[in-house]
Write a structure and sequence with these properties.
7 strands; seven-stranded antiparallel beta sheet; single chain; alpha+beta; elongated
């Protein structure tokens, strides 16, 4: 099928958006043909061959299965993070704070330390514990500015200990990062994170 007219293009776009949404969080044994049939039947006004009660029960069952798998993945992430941090804490150059935050000094600065109310300029490179990059001002080539008390707790604690000009590697347990909820598509629940943070300046 060639999508040459505006209605064709928009129609394809609607289907594509719906498909992308489903594909971002599919369930096991998703049947694309059955899903397409349901869409076609709805658009054509064809009566559903499956009664609403049966559909609702099936939705509930799949939802419960997905929640159980998500909970299992979260437990695994929490255990992996705890094991990583426990092993990392044994390194001679790693400092472990009472909160559970760990850091390693890569470059020692000698400027002022920001307060919780300060606005700072930083370069950072954030990864999961397996090295997967999820955010990086370094890769974007643009420093980030923000109030010290408006970021994750691990950052807020570390920045107030960092002299300007320092570069630290932070090892952040989940409870000082994005907690039980995670953030976005890449940072799941209960995930420990690693950040290289360079404190460039206190700008406010």
């Amino acid at each position: 099928m060639s999508h040459t007219t505006v209605p064709d293009i928009v129609s394809y776009g609607l289907g594509r958006q719906f498909g992308d949404q489903i594909a971002s969080d599919p369930f096991d044994d998703l049947n694309p043909e059955a899903m397409a049939q349901g869409l076609m039947d709805a658009l054509k006004g064809v009566e559903s061959p499956i009664d609403p009660v049966t559909i609702a029960k099936a939705f509930q069952q799949i939802n419960e299965e997905m929640q159980a798998k998500q909970a299992e993945r979260a437990k695994e992430a929490a255990a992996e993070g705890e094991a990583f941090l426990a092993e990392n804490a044994k390194k001679d150059n790693v400092v472990v704070l009472e909160s559970g935050l760990q850091y390693e000094i890569i470059e020692e600065g000698n400027g002022d330390k920001p307060s919780a109310e300060s606005v700072v300029s930083t370069h950072y490179h954030g990864t999961l514990i397996d090295g997967t990059v999820f955010d990086s001002s370094v890769e974007r080539g643009q420093p980030a500015e923000f109030p010290v008390n408006r970021v994750i707790a691990g950052w807020t604690e570390a920045l107030q200990l960092m002299p300007t000009g320092s570069k630290w590697r932070l090892y952040i347990p989940y409870h000082l990062a994005y907690g039980e909820q995670g953030a976005g598509g890449m940072i799941g629940p209960y995930q420990a994170l690693v950040f290289d943070v360079e404190l460039l300046d206190i700008v406010g």
